[in-house]
Specification:
The chain is an alpha/beta fold. It has a single domain, classed as Divalent-metal-dependent TIM barrel enzymes (TIM Barrel, Alpha-Beta Barrel), CATH 3.20.20.150. It is built from 9 helices and 10 strands. The protein has an 8-stranded parallel β-sheet. A two-stranded antiparallel ribbon has the order 8-9. α6 crosses α7 (240-247). GO terms for molecular function: isomerase activity.
């Protein structure tokens, strides 16, 4: 998902934080053949002023291949009654429209109306962590029922209240919280795709590899990676295209938007600093099979217009042609 928590301003940084530990460079084997056909989606967290039905029809009309579906009260509420029935209806509609889907879990206030993205997997309160785990378990079931490519999640920020949480304890909480979710993902055959998020405990690709080793390297079809291209520009030492190449064996979900170095602000294409053709070429060369989802969670007021402009931009960047919606 996503965007910085309100407790952390979008301040400029001069250098990215040192990785928690050096990443392992041993890549798991890949069995999928390379392909140059990228599949583009748009995140419903950037279309929150639309009913879900209207958002899905809009994206299909514009020629998108899929949708990043954030579970939240205005679209598919994971906490309201009759979730299975409502999910079944969405699955049928996605099928009718020919849209693929990735389930995203970055809704701001879905669990707590007063704490943005709270409680997290790092919450000092075990009951708080358990609430987030239950949400992720529901997301895995929803993803299985929708035929989704992956379930997205992130770690959360390390709590700094009294008493402050030390780094080792935070990693222990994260690994322990994710263990039952990974079991459910393995059973459902839907990978959990963890997103490095600026300001969070798991902020970088190096941190993802640290978590992978802590969990005994379950494999990318169980524990995969959500790579946000803007976050690479914001924080990683490598270029976004090099990040794609380095992360390719673990990629199970991709989010894309423009961004500037050192500033965690999701921007429409052309308003930041990213050179996108090399990024798109790297994704195609990697044989990435999932959705590449436009992530503009603070631009819902202009969602339909930005959805149209974004697919045109991405098509131009890949040399694709397609009709725009009437």
């Amino acid at each position: 998902m996503s965007e910085p928590p309100t407790t952390e301003p979008s301040a400029r940084t001069t250098e990215p934080p040192a990785p928690t530990t050096a990443p392992s460079i041993t890549a798991p084997p890949t069995t999928e053949p390379p392909t140059t056909a990228l599949r583009f989606g748009y995140g419903t967290n950037g279309l929150t002023d639309l009913r879900l039905e209207d958002a899905l029809v809009l994206l299909a009309d514009l020629g998108y291949d899929g949708v990043g579906l954030t579970l939240d009260h205005m679209h598919l509420d994971p906490l309201a009654p009759d979730l299975a029935t409502r999910t079944s209806r969405v699955a049928r509609r996605l099928g009718d429209l020919g849209l693929g889907v990735t389930v995203e879990t970055g809704a701001r206030y879905v669990l707590d109306p007063r704490r943005k993205h709270g409680p997290s997997l790092l919450d000092p309160d075990p009951d708080g962590r358990a609430a987030r785990v239950r949400l992720l378990l529901r997301a895995v079931q929803v993803a299985a029922d929708l035929g989704a490519h992956a379930v997205h999640c992130f770690s959360g920020i390390t709590p700094h209240d009294v008493p402050s949480t030390d780094t080792a304890t935070a990693w222990e909480r994260l690994a322990g919280s994710l263990a039952p979710v990974l079991d459910a993902a393995a059973t459902a055959r839907v990978p959990l795709a963890v997103e490095p998020e600026p300001g969070h405990l798991l902020a970088t690709l190096a941190d993802f590899h640290h978590l992978r080793r802590l969990l005994g390297d379950p494999g990318p079809d169980i524990l995969g990676l959500t790579l946000d291209i803007g976050h690479c520009q914001c924080l990683e030492p490598a270029t976004p295209a090099d990040c794609v190449r380095d992360a390719a064996p673990w990629l199970r979900h991709v989010q894309i938007e423009d961004m500037r170095r050192g500033v965690h602000e999701h921007l429409p294409f052309g308003e930041g600093e990213i050179d996108f053709p090399p990024v798109l070429e790297a994704l195609a060369a990697a044989g990435y099979q999932g959705l590449t989802v436009v992530e503009l969670p603070r631009h819902s007021h202009a969602g339909p217009e930005l959805a149209r402009a974004s697919i045109d931009f991405l098509r131009q960047g890949t040399g694709m042609r397609g009709a725009t919606a009437p």
